[in-house]
Amino acid sequence: MQRILFHSTIFGPLHSRRLGTSLGVNLSPRDGKICSFDCLYCEAGFNAQGPGEAGLPPRSEVATLLQQKLAEMKANGENLDVITFSGNGEPTLHPSFGEIVDDTISLRDRFFPEAKVSVLTNSTRLDRPDVVAALRKVDNNILKLDSAVEETMCIIDRPNSPAFTVEKVVGELSQFAGTGIVQTMMLRGEWNGAHIDNTTPHEVEALINAYRKIAPREIMLYSIDRATPAQSLVKVPIEELQAIASRITAETSIPVQVN
User: Fold this and answer.
1) Could you report the per-residue pLDDT of 156-208, keeping only the tens digit for each?
2) How many Å apart are CA 66 and CA 63, to the nearest integer?
3) With the C-alpha atoms ordered 152, 155, 160, 163, is the resulting torsion angle positive or negative?
């Protein structure tokens, strides 16, 4: 079984194809996975592997470890483009998420004021005012929308809550109009006998309509780059992603980054 990627709270720095030199902050357990999605393509594996035994890292521990790493990088003359909340699950599930964002911004300003703070979120907690307030503070609020077709979204992302719907998330994403970045994973494949392809004309048209309502400052289109727990998934060629991106920009005037 494919397992979690990260075995520490602070990891990297790594080279991100979308963000540059990135220092990661993992607010999930270092020995397990906690997420409100169970995506077929998740590089950290399926939720069935369990949450582990370490638990969520306390706010004080995150701040201490991040300060130590940033001080070390500064002393060594290393470069840093971004501090990214990512890791083995959904960062906004951490009960101290907002406070940890505040700590991170303060430490960024102290050690690497030119660096950005980014959050990769699956958009499942946008009905919480504290989460929304924290996301408004970061430089790159990167929000997931993998399909605007309900059936496809449920197959690809497998949300834990039946209350999570395309209509709900599109409405909640629109509160970040002009500031949020919407990230969409494009892929093909099969799962439990169901064919998956969110690159079809019908799927792209639905995404375009959703992007218009959301009005993000930018869209990120990408495809599979590492091994996935659902092994039947297929990477979409970069040329095809670029063609889809061109259509999206032509019809919405929203810039699209392709990776």
Assistant:
1) 999 999 999 999 999 999 999 999 999 999 999 999 999 999 999 999 999 99
2) 5
3) positive
